[in-house]
Amino acid sequence: MSQLKEAILSTTSGGNKAFIPYIMAGDGGLEKLQPTILKLQELGVTAIEVGIPFTDPVADGPTIERAGERALANGTTLRKVIETLTSFADKIQVPLVAMTYLNPILAYGVEKFAEDAKLAGIRGVIIPDMPLEEREIVHPALKANHIALVQLVSLTSTSERIERLTKASEGFIYAVTVNGITGARSSFASELEEHFKKIQEYTDTPVLAGFGISTPEHVKSFSDFCSGVIVGSKIVDSLVADDWATIEELVKASKVTAVK
Amino acid sequence: MSQVAIKNGYYGEFGGSFVPEDLQQVLQYIGEQYEKYKNDPEFNEELDYYLREYAGRENPLYLAENLTKQLGGAKIYLKREDLNHTGSHKINNVLGQILLAKRMGVKRVIAETGAGQHGVATATACAMFGMECTIYMGAKDTKRQALNVFRMELLGAKVVAVDKGQGLLKEAVDEAFADLVANYKNTFYLIGSAVGPTPYPEMVEHFQSIISKESRAQHLEKEGKLPTAVVAAVGGGSNAAGAFAHYKEDKEVRLIGVEPAGAATLSKGSPAVFHGFKSFVLQDEEGNLLETSSIAAGLDYQGVGPLHAHLHSTGRGEYVTVTNEEVLEAFQTLSRVEGIIPALESSHAVAYALKLAPTLSPEDSIIVNVSGRGDKDVEQVFEMLNK
User: Fold this and answer.
1) B280: number of CA atoms within 13 Å, CB side?
2) How confident is the model at residue A198 (pLDDT cuts 50, 70, 90)?
3) Which one of B152, B153, B287, B333 has the largest count of C-beta atoms within 10 Å of its C-beta?
4) pTM of the predicted protein model
5) Which residues are responsible for catalysis (chain A) (predicted)?
6) Residue A69 near chain B (CB below 8 Å)
7) H helices within A170-255, ranges in order?
8) What residue spans define the domains of chain B?
């Protein structure tokens, strides 16, 4: 079992829900990466999704796209993110999940990326512009380095496709909860619960909800029908504002035992 | 013919569909519908009708006698896509895709546009077919091309200024895809260039292949043989895709794509995955995109259609560059010598033909694809010449 899946299952078996915050590496400078990761870790997050900025972020909404632009503007690259993570890898206790697009990995070299990512504490990878049909481009190298390749399942996926995606996904299944790109939304489609049920039918790999989750209420309401949540835009905004109270509230909402 | 090299959405090793899962599903559906209708006799009869009666095809393959004499080499033929309704080759593809949208029962069409030519062509066809039309355009482009925005609105389209990122074509494309994912049940996304995830590059090439279907027959009739070379400008690559399609198997015909020196994707780029497909792209060593600069908005693009990446890497196509100065010179030369004002995009092809013709013999002939008319560029050229 991958370390990533193990971390999620150990959270859920304790009665809590998995909580994975998304951060954009290099937003506010790469020197912020270490304190941010260590502080999130202290708050008791299950894993941390580390976004790598890219010039063509087709799956990102405005908040994360702007964070990516800021990170690129101050010189952040995949290489530098991996170097920075590696420099304090001994202090990282939660699995890191890199979210990046395919081209920076191709430019880095797939094999080299997988080897270096492992040393940087990266235990999972999400590549939103790489479809299931193309996963062999990176999968063998990731597998050799024990890095889980997480697949996204969307609301538009057919049953046949959901089955293939869920069977292929490693670590967890990233269930996209809105049609389109990332970003906080105020309400959710009613068919969501059905959708999650359908996904869970095919697998015992944990299903996490992501895209548009921005309040403790969202976190709680999703917890009813999945193993946990990924929170992106809201975390990115809160980090820019240095508003750790909001982040703490969100993490707390995933912990059944801590909520009165 | 044009579909020979395509397999599972790939031209050789280029193409594919590198998009998020939600979009993947929607594109697959569009691909199935395209496959269903592209060889349907009734569909093609209707398309032929509109290409003839509405767009004004076939257009001439015109022997540029004055230019030929002046250059003293190969005969120069001009394929007059500039004479189509809306003034460029864009209408060929728009009519094809909008008929597909109609077959799919869709009432709403969306499109992206940079300089506005594709947006105008799409708005035109939507007006005629009674479709609701939304055009996404970068906020910066809407300011630079205010008249084209008015043109589209005059035709009944809603123009959405996308105020994100740099406010250019790329942001308009992203926004259009987001719209498609949210509204795919009643919306068709009509892409104008031979780029993007499958099935778009193949679909655009197919609907543009009418250019070379005509030019090949016209040249055979006039000269009793095939041309020595076909020359077309390449940005995303739709006019060149159409100009080359029916010559791909005629190995003796040189296929020459002309890129701006400031956006020389094939000459200076390297393979990459971006904007949903694998092709050549101008990128840095970290895999991020570089900025481009061309005087022709329609060629100002970091990438290129997968067909051209394939023709380039197999050696079947030759890809060359011309400078902005050469383009400006060609723009004026064709206007003065033949009384035809070409679009700045098309002027790239003309510029290379001016260099190529004198090196060939009078037995040779070159077809230059005049993809659009230059009226839209007259003001810009005026400013550049009077600076």
Assistant:
1) 23
2) confident
3) B152
4) 0.91
5) 49, 60
6) yes
7) 192-201, 216-223, 233-240, 244-253
8) 11-49+89-204, 56-88+209-385
